[in-house]
């Protein structure tokens, strides 16, 4: 190996690093809480509050990703630049990396790109801008996200949640959009096949026609080649409330509960089986384990949330709690393309 050691060194420990203290929340960490209609269980969408708490408090990561994971994250930026070049050639590109700041929630974000709606270019007259958020994914064609699968074609919930604050921010400026809804295209592209899918996200209700709506009335709507979907479980109020809660945790110097699980309980596994949310293989393994352990004293199946499996603070968070490594973690990987905006100056949480 001639290059590997030096490459790993520069990838994991770049000579120029941003070591500023995080002083704002980022839309890429947007999250909300809902209830899974099939299991009746609480379900988190997006970033774990406890994970954000560790980052803000400056807790040293116990499980930082390896060099390959870091490259995957950076690949998102490379793909964004490639697609933007094509958009420029098509005469559609308008701007890149524009910033927003929502003081009420100390929210600092950066929108990947803006394009002109081709329809408005073709007809002449006022040109209408549309935001674009790029997301790359490693899995072949990403069934249900890039390719229609079992009637489903939707972006990941966390990607939808991320763009709602952008849409909210720009809803203040309806004049920019000449009567058209404020929209953001979540452009998802597979790193392996380079196939892609566009999901157009906008805010539900009639706020986009100039009628102000309360946050609780505003939810995500997604349009793509499979149709129009109202995601009423992803609301602006739900997203903003989570950052308000985190601020309160920080102010009170309390650590938030875990939003995800490194290992599901047997009770949860049984509910997932009942809701048809596990593979046939997993259902078979659980049935076999249940026979030998009907009282559920042991772990029926090593399985948990990928969010914990990929978390930089996994060991710290589960210190003293013994688990087998859940196998679901190997099936998922973080999406690339989320850029971290530069922090702003006002402190968050602690006073
Ligand atoms: S390990 Fe899981 S619960 Fe703990 S901070 Fe990370 S994502 Fe949250």
Task: List all distinct small molecules, including ions and cofactors, that are bound in this structure.
Answer: iron/sulfur cluster
- The number of helical segments is 10
Major beta sheet summary: 7 strands, mixed
Helix content: 25-40%
- The general outline is globular
Q: Can you give a write-up of this model?
A:
- This protein is an alpha+beta fold.
- The protein has a domain at 67-251.
- Helices cover 30% and strands 20% of the residues.
- The protein contains 10 helices and 9 strands.
- The chain has helices at 4-12, 49-57, 67-89, 118-123, 157-170, 236-251, 266-274, 280-292, 306-309, 314-317; strands at residues 31-35, 42-46, 93-102, 107-116, 129-137, 184-190, 196-203, 219-224, 227-235.
- The strands form 2 sheets. A 7-stranded mixed beta sheet has the order 3-4-5-6-7-8-9. The chain has a two-stranded antiparallel sheet with strand order 1-2.
- β3 (93-102) and β4 (107-116) form a beta hairpin.
- The longest helix has 23 residues, at 67-89.
- The radius of gyration is 21 Å and the shape is globular.
- It starts with a helix and ends in a 34-residue tail after the last helix.
- The relative contact order is 0.18.
- Mean pLDDT is 87; it is low at 325-347.
């Amino acid at each position: 190996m001639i290059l590997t050691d030096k490459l790993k060194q520069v990838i994991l420990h770049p000579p120029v690093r941003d070591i500023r203290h995080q002083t704002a929340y980022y839309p890429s960490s947007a999250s909300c809480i809902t209830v899974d209609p099939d299991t009746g269980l609480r379900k988190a969408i997006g970033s774990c509050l406890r994970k954000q708490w560790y980052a803000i408090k400056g807790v040293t990561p116990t499980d930082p990703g390896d060099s390959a994971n870091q490259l995957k994250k950076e690949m998102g930026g490379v793909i964004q630049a490639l697609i933007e070049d094509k958009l420029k050639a098509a005469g559609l590109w308008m701007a890149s990396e524009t910033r927003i700041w929502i003081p009420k929630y100390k929210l600092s974000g950066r929108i990947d790109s803006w394009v002109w709606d081709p329809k408005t270019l073709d007809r002449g007259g006022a040109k209408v801008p549309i935001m674009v958020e790029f997301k790359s994914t490693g899995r072949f064609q990403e069934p249900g996200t890039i390719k229609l699968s079992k009637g489903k074609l939707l972006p990941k919930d966390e990607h939808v949640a991320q763009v709602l604050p952008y849409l909210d921010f720009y809803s203040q400026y309806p004049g920019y959009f000449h009567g058209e809804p404020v929209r953001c295209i979540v452009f998802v592209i597979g790193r392996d096949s380079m196939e892609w899918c566009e999901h157009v996200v906008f805010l539900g209700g009639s706020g986009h026609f100039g009628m102000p709506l309360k946050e609780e009335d505003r939810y995500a709507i997604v349009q793509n080649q499979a149709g129009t979907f109202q995601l009423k479980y992803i609301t602006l109020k739900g997203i903003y409330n989570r950052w308000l809660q985190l601020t309160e945790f920080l102010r009170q110097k309390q650590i938030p509960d875990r939003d995800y699980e490194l290992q599901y309980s047997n009770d949860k596994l049984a509910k997932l089986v009942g809701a048809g949310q596990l593979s046939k293989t997993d259902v078979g393994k659980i049935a076999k384990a249940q026979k030998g352990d009907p009282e559920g004293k042991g772990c029926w199946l090593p399985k948990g949330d990928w969010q914990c499996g990929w978390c930089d603070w996994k060991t710290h968070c589960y210190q003293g709690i013994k688990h087998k490594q859940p196998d679901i973690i190997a099936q998922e990987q973080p999406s690339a393309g989320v850029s971290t905006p530069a922090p702003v100056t006002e402190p968050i949480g602690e006073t």
